[in-house]
Amino acid sequence: MNFSTYINNKEVTVDLIRKRALKHTYLRLISKDLIQISANIFFTVDDAKRLIDNKIEWLEKGLVKLEKNFMEKDEFLFLGIRHKNLDFRDLDKFYKGEAKRLIPPIVEKYSKIMNLSPTSIKFRKNKRTWGSCNYKNELNFNILLMKFPIPLIEYVVIHELAHIKEKNHSKRFWSLVEEYCPDYKRRMKEFKSFL
């Protein structure tokens, strides 16, 4: 069941999905013009409108962020800058090539500074992580890091190098990250603004 509402003076479609098995109600921003509400079969359109009213600030902020980060089909991000994909290049192949070119010198630079050396560096497209360090001290980096500005890539490199010494996210780990990236909290916040 669909109905329309207005958020930030823009018309937005609300897709209300009702399922017998659902115990909880879920509100999701799908796109800049679509909200999805999943609820049980007794949840009415009036209930949905009340939920939207109660969550209006969250929805307004979310829609502003979605619009800011909205990309046309022929656009892509590279090092934090929006580009037109005029030649319809294979972006995964492009990002992988650029990751292999740009990330190893950053790893080498911070390896020397931090006195922490990985056993290998690999690149792949991941859905859940930007980087990882395994028990063999092999570093893996997500090729999609190439979307972000260099300072954010540097933060991920420092973060993963720190895992060579500290395998968890303990206070010692974050102290080590902060030693080599004093503004890491700001960079983490900036990272999230791109997502």
UniProtKB/TrEMBL annotation:
Signal peptide residue numbers: none
Species for this entry: Halarcobacter ebronensis
One Pfam assignment: YgjP-like
Residue ranges of domain YgjP-like metallopeptidase in the record: 89-193
Lineage per the UniProt record: Bacteria, Pseudomonadati, Campylobacterota, Epsilonproteobacteria, Campylobacterales
Regions crossing the membrane: none
Stated name of the protein: YgjP-like metallopeptidase domain-containing protein
PANTHER family in alphabetical order: UNCHARACTERIZED PROTEIN YGJP, UTP PYROPHOSPHATASE
UniProt xrefs under InterPro entries: UTP_pyrophosphatase-like, YgjP-like_metallopeptidase
